[in-house]
Each structure stands twice: as C-alpha cells, then as structure tokens.
Amino acid sequence: MSHLCQAIPSANTLSPKVPIVLTIAGSDSGGGAGIQADIKAISATGSYACCVITAITAQNTLGVQSIFPIPLPEIEAQLDSVFSDLNIVAVKIGMLASSEIIKLVARKLKQYQPKHIVLDPVMVATSGDLLVQPGAITSLIEHLLPIASVITPNIPEALTLIGENPGHFNGDIEALSHTLKTLPTQAILLKGGHLQPQDASIDWLISKAQVDAFSSERINTHNTHGTGCTLSSAMASYLAQGSSLVDAAQQAKNYLTEAIRSADALNIGQGHGPVDHFYSLHRSA
Fold it and tell me: Which residues are the signal sequence here (predicted)?
C-alpha cells in the first residue's frame, strides 16, 4: 500500500491535555540531532517533551569529537524522576552507548511500562562516526527490541541488526523486509534514505502481517543532520496523541519531509546542517 504526503495536523486539533513524550538519548552540542532534535520535533508536532540524557557528545555539523557516557546511577535517577511525576505516554529511545546503559534502560521501562516505545537504533552519526560500543548491538537486540512498539533503523542499521554487511546490500528491499520480520520486535519502520539515486524517498513499515510503503519527494540537500532522531521522535509524538502505528508513520514522514524542505534556509554550520524543526513558524514569519 502506498501513502502520499498529507497535511500536517495542527496542534490546535489536539485535546486540551497535551500528551507527554520522553526521549532517552544523547546530547548533541551542535543542536541538530540527539536530545535537542528530539525535543524540537516532539514540541513542533504538538506534544510535551521531557528527557533523560544518556551521554554528552562534543558534536557539530562536521562530526563527533568526543563522547562521555553518563554514569549509570545518574541515568537511573533521571528515569525515576520523570516517571514518578509525569504521565509519560510514549518513549523515544535514541543513542545508548554501552551494553550497561541498554540493560538499565530496558529494566526501567519494564518497571514503568509506558504505552508506546519507539526505538531508533542509533549506531552511526551522519558524519560516519561510530556512536556505540560494538557489544552494545547484541544487547540492543536482546533487551530492547522485544519491548519496543516499533524500531526505526535506516538500511545500514537494519543490515547490522540482522548480522549482514551493509556494504554487500544489493538493494532487494523485499528480501530484506522478509528477514527483518525475524527480529524479536513488533514492527520495523525501515528508512530508505540511503537508497540512491531515486526521485522519491520511500520508507517501509514492516510488521508480521504486512508491509506499508510511504513515499515522498526526495529533496536535494546536504542538511540532513538529525533526520533519524527527528522522524522517530515525531512518530512517538503522534502515537502519544492516539494515532495508529500506520498513521503515526505517515504523519512523521510528512513532518520530516517539510523540515528537510526548509533545511537550507537555516544555513547552520559548515557540514551536514540540521533540518528545520520549526519550519511552520519560519514560513509564517
């Protein structure tokens, strides 16, 4: 089934009680990805964002200069703090740099049981920098995939999760989708942005029962820093607002497309700049 882009729902259509979305991820000092992108995307799509920071990165549009994982007791304290006070409906998970952090987050989410969990298996930054320890991938599959409502890998990340070399991928999405169904998770939103060259940008929502394709215009820009963070956060936001998994994927795809369309107008940094999370505000101005 193919879905065409539709208008982004206005925040004015939400119920008076704004749903709360928690992002668990690393901080990007450049502001384009990670926690910063998550909070922007969740806010721009009409939900309330809170956060748990798992790592501090020295990062800009040119690359990642250093990574400092937050000590486990401090991550646990953050999780207990927000869950003990806030009615968190959905959780987005991004960068978890080590197996120990992954196991802790999984344990706490099983304790608090939020309704929706969107897992973005962040492994490599847009610049190509590795963001996780090699052993963390196994822990991710074992501890977090089984409790996720949906995972949102790009094609290289998806291939890594099934133990295949991304450099050997032949472009067969049907075969890849079939293999991805064997992963221990409910659904996979496979991001097709790495498929080049194409006129359209296509993502696939893969579940045990079916595969839905979401197509949008491919926009020619180098400013794509934080696209994965943005898409998964927007999807968590729409799930928190009551959208179905298919509708949330479509709404998030629409939002990201417009954020990418306006990215060049920001003119941020010397490398891969960020998308324009608040494009609607900038356009109206």
Answer: none
